[in-house]
Amino acid sequence: MEQYDVVIVGAGLAGFAAAAEAADDNLKTLLIEKGRTTGGTGNYVEGVFAADSEMQKQQNVVMDKQELLEEELTYSHYKADGKMWQQYIDQAGKNVSWLKERGVDFITVAGLGDGAQTWHLFKGKGHDAIHNGLEPYAKGKGLEVLTLTRVTGLKQRADHTYEVTLTNVEDKSIQVIIAQNVVLATGGYLNDQELLESTPHQNPYNIIPVNSGKNTGDGLRLAWNLGAKKYFTGMAMMFGGQLKSKKIPSFKLWGTAIWSSVCDQPQMWVNELGERFVDESACVVNWANEGNAMNRQDRVFCIFSQKILDDFTDKSFPRSMKPFVPEDRYPSLRADLAKAEAEGHEYLHKADNLTDLAKEIATPNLVDYVKHYNEMAAQGEDTDFHKPAKYMLPVDGDGPFYAIELGVGAYTTGDGLRVNTNNEVLDAQGRPIEGIYAIGGDGSAVLYGDTYGVNVPGTHAGYCIFSGRNAIKAIASKK
């Protein structure tokens, strides 16, 4: 049987970071990917976190590492691992330089909204960072890559190495190899409905994965079979409302005029009862908050009138979206909604009056609540949730009236396994399982409570780089 120093399960951003580090350490490494192509969800990553990079220094961006640490610990209500965070923050700037040296190109350092300027944006997103940088670099130094292959068995032998059973996805042929160490990098479990349903604090039926579709908890199950602790905090990296569609993947509707008008503009959102549940303006500026608020509901709709639709199309909307939307209006919105209606998209509901709209979407209190909302708008005061008066657009006038159904977009999960500061997987007693490591989404529970901190952007992707390198350094130190 072929023997390897390291077998990495999952060829995404974290997997390739580990592979490149392993190549530098002259470790015989096999990278395994169940899909036909490599990169996974990492292909869509915009950029990575850092606190003291050369790029930040060139742009005169100064970050206080202690403040960032306190921000993350406080945001997680101290559920995050402070020791791991400190180690990560200290290494993040060096990791940006390391990426550059391995062929990864960056555009600039940015913040997200009014968040910290920690986001180091890739040229060509994660796709180019992986396929023009890390992948050719590691292959050039001897990395072996197997695609269309699943790890279907992991068994420790008497000499503490592992038998790794590989199954070809297409012809079901089986191969067994030997690994000194196994690194799990399968991206968490966002695409596994059964695992989502087993986590607390979520309404999994409202979650719309916006990722590669391959994150089905493979790494978690392999670790659990070896005695790893099942560690669920209910963390999904949510980023606000998405159009709920079965006809087209929601990520293809992200950023469209319809999507932006109901998710970026603080219009009237109601739940399954037809009642508001939040100050919409406080959510649209922080999509983690938006996702959390929406995910507490069974169903979510944006309710608006023909007058609002016409105003948004022809005149203006209240919250500027420049530079993402060049004008303070959506010139194509009316036509886009008409097209969606003609194509029969199920997220769009339309009726001549509010009574009929309420019946169509089964919201018993909608008519009464809209009346109450319009009264508050006329008075210029939101006594329910204190939304600023300029955003209190009355839902009135002549029909038709519209309801757009929303789900909650999510990028990845951040729980499932516990790891220590070497990214070794821990068992139920908190002891490391020898030779088993988890990185990226498989080993990111150390970073979070139940919510991703968008105020310090790039932290999950940056952790993919950090944890991949961190695990391999720990392996190399044992040789």
Automatic annotation (TrEMBL):
Cofactor(s) demanded: FAD
Q: Where is the FAD-dependent oxidoreductase 2 FAD-binding domain?
A: 5-443
Give the matching Pfam families.
FAD_binding_2 (PF00890)
Source organism superkingdom: Bacteria
Listed A to Z, the keywords are: FAD, Flavoprotein, Oxidoreductase
Read off the PANTHER family from this record. FAD-DEPENDENT OXIDOREDUCTASE 2 FAD BINDING DOMAIN-CONTAINING PROTEIN (PTHR43400:SF7), FUMARATE REDUCTASE (PTHR43400)
**Name used for this protein in its record:** Fumarate reductase
